[in-house]
Predict the structure.
Amino acid sequence: MIELVAHSEAMREAVRLAGRVATTDANVLVTGESGAGKDALALYIHRESKRAAGSFVKIDCAALPAELLEAELFGYERGAFTGAQESKPGRLEAAHKGTLVLDEIAHLSTDAQAKLLRVIERREFERLGGRRTVKVDARLIALTNVDLDEAVRRRAFRPDLFYRLNVVRIHVPPLRERREDVRKLARGFLKTYAAKHGRRALRIEPAALQMLETYDFPGNVRELAHVLERAVIVADGERVEVEHLPESVRAAASLQRRREARMTLAELEAAYIAETLVAARGNKSEAARLLGISRKNLYEKLARQKGNDEG
Ligand SMILES: Nc1ncnc2c1ncn2[C@@H]1O[C@H](COP(=O)(O)OP(=O)(O)O)[C@@H](O)[C@H]1O
Ligand SMILES: [Mg+2]
């Protein structure tokens, strides 16, 4: 992983807290939207902790059906279920002396929640179908992008387990709430992806950077990374320019400008039609198709605009 960027005060605060909790063995609950950097922060905690030499193990609680997830987490003995031809240790055992990250913890089944609670309270468990009790010493870091307090209120998540996981809670703010991080993140990703794709390191044009700094990034840091990987691939010169940013980012920026200019709906429509005509290289049939209207309708709209301009 590239170095964890924390330039904004909000992110610095999260990393400070992570650094403090790293020196203890406390369980941690990391909250934040998808792509905001929960995994990245969990890895940071592991690396800063005295468990850094131990393994960093991850399990995604949303990725597998309940039974398979339990088998993956707790391991199983031969014959525990059909298909269990060999005994296999689970991720918990793999995380002994290290850190276990439970991604999307809200998806954990009731059964697995009970077993995990016992792991926390007694530091022991049995593999599925096993009678031997296994001792385990692992720090747990739970990640969630949904409101776990609300899941507890709905009785979808055990309160006792919640309190055990929520000893320290760290929130990773969405990227749109810490736009100061965009520049540094963007530069880091440009370097990473230039190396990956065998390109020279690219510089980013101020206009392109500004566009990124005003974009809302619904996919957060992960989306920014993708945007820059794409730019590294499509840019042919030495700089990333606005035209190398994906349509989604450019469209949002032009919409934003219009909102700021307080355009009327008619003005907005006219501007959008004009933009689409440019994108269609002046081809009106193509523009009408892109706009989802008939060619006739487009001609009518253009005629009306012309009338408005002259009137
Ligand atoms: N602060 C950061 N500095 C550098 N890279 C980051 C940062 N936050 C996230 N990333 C990168 O962005 C991508 C998505 O982050 P991730 O931790 O997987 O998000 P989440 O777990 O919240 O969905 C990963 O490639 C990660 O390395
Ligand atoms: Mg993640």
Notes: The pocket of adenosine-5'-diphosphate (ligand 1) is lined by residues 1-2, 4-6, 32, 34-40, 185, 221-222, 225 (CB under 6 Å).
